[in-house]
Amino acid sequence: MPTYTYRCDSSHRFDEVHTMSSVPDASTCPDCGGAALRRPGSPHLSAAGSSAYGLIDAAARSAHEPAVVSSLPGAPRRPGAGITRNPLHAKLPRH
């Protein structure tokens, strides 16, 4: 849902979340109790792609609903899995 910015006569600014079909033009200031009018605001645009939004949403969900796992992620390493028997690989530089 969109966030709308309001400002009262005492220059207090605050945000409220409303559906687009029921957004009021005025609200009550939570600081002073005075009438506050809706101010024009800029849209919240982002250059992130849909995959980035998926990661952000997954991180936000996991903060409140952590996934339960039964083992550590990834396959266990086999001893000697990094050793090759190809004689051409012996000529490669080692670091």
UniProtKB/TrEMBL annotation:
Positions of the UniProt region annotated as Disordered: 67-95
Domain of life: Bacteria
TM helices/strands, residue ranges: none
Domain Putative regulatory protein FmdB zinc ribbon: 1-42
Pfam family, one: Zn_ribbon_8
Cited NCBIfam families: CxxC_CxxC_SSSS
Protein name as it appears in the record: Putative FmdB family regulatory protein
Lineage: Bacteria, Bacillati, Actinomycetota, Actinomycetes, Micrococcales
